[in-house]
Amino acid sequence: MEREERTLLLTFGVSLLCHAIFFGLMLFWPSQSPARFKAPSAIHVDMVSLPAPINDVQTAIEPESAATDPVPVEAAPQPPKPDEIKPLIPEPEIKIPEKTEPEVKIEEPEKIPDKPPKHIQAKVKPKPDKLPNKIVSLTPKKKTPKPKLKPKTALKQKTQKSSNVIKQAIAKLETSKKKASYDPVKAKLDGLRKKLGKIKNTDTPKRSEGTYSGQSRGKFSLALAGKLNIYKYGPLRDSIVQNWAFNPGLAGGGTDLEVQLLVKIMANGKIGSIEYVKRSGNAMLDESAYRAIKKSDPLPRLPKGLPYYEIVMGFGPSGLN
Amino acid sequence: MNLKSRFFKFMFKTTLNTAVSFFLLISAAQSAEYDYLKFTNPFIKKIPIAVPDLRNMNADPAVNELTRRGADRLSSNLAFTGFFKLLDRSAFLTDPQKNELIPSNIKFKNWTAIRAEYLVTGSIKVFEGDMIEVEFRLYDTFRENLKVGKRYKGWKNDLDRMVRRFSNEIVFNLTGIKGIFNSKIAFISKKSKKKDIYICDFDGSNAQRYTKTQSITLSPAWSSDGQWIAYTSYVRGKPDLYIRNIIQKHGVVIRKKGSNITPDWVPGRFELAASLSFSGDPEIYLLTGKGKVVKRLTNNRGIDISPSWSPDGKKIAFVSKRSGTPQLHIKNISSGGLQRLTFVGKQNTQPCWSPKGDRIAYSGMLKGLNQILVISSKGGDPVQLTFEGDNESPSWSPDGNLIVFSSTREGVSRIYVMTAIGTDQRRLIALPGQQSEPSWSPAFSNN
Fold it and tell me: Is A261 within the bounds of a domain?
């Protein structure tokens, strides 16, 4: 009896282990279609949003190799660009000055990408005036330290991963740092403040936003789904299509080209993020789709009751004639 | 014992729960499909681009004329492609002569606000002795980055050439296809019963007479390196085929019995196909650039003329009367396979194979008038591109995005151009007399 039980226990243990490994693998095995496999992430940085979409800070310049042409007209290499990205100066740990509860560390420099991934651009807005009262934040605000310091940073576009955003923010800061007029100290403080904001966001339990997890339409009430459908085929489609500039001739007559982008629309209609899901192979088409969405920002407000709405938009010219 | 069984029960339950919730989680994640919305019809067919005046680096008002000219030429080059909408300069929020357009100062929101998707800035500096230094930069206003920048130095007279070069850079950068701004167009101009070849720039400017015969000259054809031109001339009383170097003008004449007409160069080789009738009826032959017959490409009792090579040099499209009326056919050179391409209409002639290889433009008789049509090189339904007057002799631009042709829509025959889908039709040249048979050169890399 005793032995039998022990065997049973052993079998049970082994079985449990095997199951755990099996299901673990199933869960974490790299998915074939990354777009579809999106477990709700713990950090939603989307909650802070700035109304003004435009930034004054110049972004990084893509280094282009200027091919020199020979012959009468002399083509010289490109003149040096003033705003090339320099490597970030290594920073030791920095603690947030007074009053701020969480301790914040600046990312180590080697983690910082040379430039942010193309489809996501966190933007830094150095203009103080419009800001404070317009910040759309769903999280309870904590007191911001030092009103004297311009609270100028906010994220316009976000990603799922906070670490990415932070990296971009810092990369961005670096570019803005290059501007002579820019005070590096302020920039640094801004960076810290941004991180702080992020941490606050993570602290807030997302559950309080409702059960909506963004993807599955099945979770809506029927009424909401109806409203969303009207929104999708009405104001949303109209806004985007009016801003889409593309010439079918540029598709080389190809009628099967399609680029797909995953767009996150916030409740107030602002675009939270744009992400390529599938590229068409035609750079001109890919870019035109991105710009159509950017030009439509902000979109009309979402139907009430939706914190945000994620949708894949496909762009493909129907072909010649 | 009791405790143990309870423990087992508990463990069992927990495992089951975990497994079930795993399953649920996975299925939830996989069924989490996004809403989807498809756009197929762009509202704006041309990409809005802003080209402000060049910046005057001399502070000398005399240079202002050049700053405007540079921007004007660049604008008209870009507009010529049919892909860009040049935004009205009076709507710009930025004064190009102030410091707002130097690279570190550009406020992209000033350009996105007027819906410009791209911005081209430039500056010009004049040195002693009529030397100039011109800088151009192309920016993506929404991504806020520099796409390409170049600096050119040269004579003041070369400003247009510098602008053409940067126009090529812009098109290549945005579309990945070589720009056509250094290409040329050869055409026939008829004046008092004499026909000569003229050559002009891609936009119809700088037209210059190339042949100076007191006779009739027909069907110019460019070699794929742009160094040679072949044409038919009646200088010696009957149609002979001339092959000439475009610059040095030396070359050979093919004077076989009968007619020697409609040449077309093999892409990438110093060989050409032409229709020769020394054996009786016109057949298509492959010739070397020196005029030697390599082999006969068609063999049929009907008339075979007007060969046009596919870009890979493996097939020719040509006109044959073997089925009774002149129709387009395609012959595979290596396999010898033959296929009739056109079935609509009683007369389809003058094929021109697109540089992209997928389509063939030709002129077809519809209601008593010739019109330009385009058909897939695999066959199918043709698409009619012209509707007014008599339209003939289509020839593709080297990038395959434009078609040059002749038309009588405004009275006498003139040279016109349109996009490959038939939009933006406009006249290119108006010389005294009549113009016809345009032939677009390859894209010269240097000019």
Answer: yes
